[in-house]
Amino acid sequence: MWQIYDELIAQIPTGLRVQQIGHRQRRLYLKSDTGVGTAMLFQPWDTDLTPWVGQDLKTVAAEIKSWDFQRASIGLAAINSYLNQADLRQDARLNVLGQHDVFADYQDQPAKVATIGHFYYVDKYPKLAQRLTVFELNPRPGDYPASATEFLLPEMNAVLITGSTLVNKTLPRLLELAQQAEVVLVGGSTPLAASLLDHGISKLAGVVYQDLPKEVDQPRDHGTPLVVGLAADRT
């Protein structure tokens, strides 16, 4: 069950440090010696982040395996600060498809499409939004509860999964349930890591940051918009 996580941690070199860390209401940002990474927060941050500054990046990355989801978010942000670079670490296994919204790929397809989690930018594609099956931990009217994935996910042709499922450890099971579907890992929490493509994921749609967003320490009621950035597919 931990293979996905161990493979991500193994890609982080030793000797790198956390330079800066901050958060908004639903998102945490971490700047390391190599770049900036982000991860979703499952609850508002309520403790001092200062002790994480200066720590070894690989050690912090290992926190992704924590069952304390706040610590796991820090671990994922640390991983993304290294992996989510414009050159994709020059990994020959990854093919840059460009900066585009992967939801647009499913707008006119008749396939059964599901998302794990809500994505606000789906509203840009009303035809897709009308027929989309949404599984959500906190379901809204019209959504299915997360437990329904056990019954309905195997029926889907395409499944777009929020990268934050790495934090709450639901991703491995979701991938088992979606084996027959095209799976895309989506959002700012998504690591652009070739190793993920060995576990039934077809595409990665993450975010590359050049620097920390302005006023990163100022919480916003609506959170931080997720920007679908580089998408990576098998070469």
Automatic annotation (TrEMBL):
Native organism is Agrilactobacillus composti DSM 18527 = JCM 14202
Q: Which Pfam families match?
A: DUF364, DUF4213
Q: Which InterPro entries match?
A: DUF364, DUF4213
Q: Which residues form the Putative heavy-metal chelation domain?
A: 110-211
Enumerate the spans annotated as DUF4213 domain. 5-82
What does UniProt list as this organism's lineage? Bacteria, Bacillati, Bacillota, Bacilli, Lactobacillales
- Protein name according to UniProt: Heavy-metal chelation domain-containing protein
